[in-house]
Amino acid sequence: MRRADQSSNNLPIDTLEDIGGFERAEAGQPVDSGGRYYYIYTYDWRLDNVETVRGLSRMIERIRLDHGRPDPKVDIIAHSMGGMIARYYLRYGEVDATIDNSFPVNYHGEDRVRRILLLGTPNMGSVESMKSFIVGRRVGLRRIPPEVMVTFPSFYQLFPHPLTDWLVDIDGRPIDVDPFDLSTWRRFQWSIFDPDLRKKIIVSAP
Length: 206
Description:
The chain has 2 domains: about 1-120, no CATH class; about 125-200, no CATH class. The protein has 8 helices and 8 strands, in the order βαβββαβαβαββαααα. The chain is an alpha/beta fold. The radius of gyration is 20 Å and the shape is elongated.
């Protein structure tokens, strides 16, 4: 899986083709049952990850149909946030488990995925996602400001896991705060609770 903003580094693809003997295929196009094929799933990293998971699910179902068999399993190679999307698919399929705290695990992807390889996946969340809401995020040659970053649902879904000591004081001692608690953001004046940023937003508003 590849984010839409990632550079076109073809080394992994070259390895699949030259060493693995795989051939590029497109979901929705029938293929020979005895061949070795790879597919690229490109997604918009700014969107809700549940929507991205649903897109992955539709793609995998098309691939299964393309192979003319009811039960083929796919292998997934996922990088960074793509690994989170793949893990979600394995546990919940297309169900939106973010609505409440019940997390109805159904292992939907277990019957459809043979193995999964995660590369640089923030399995315990990412402090960088928090930082992006405070100082913005550089993409290419430009920086996306924090007031825009807070409109991207996927970055809320990358917040650090409660089990991680993601925030420490000047002496290196963990500070027990909840990144999902609005009072935390008010307390530290982060992102839209930064007075200077609020002035900027108000001035730029039509």
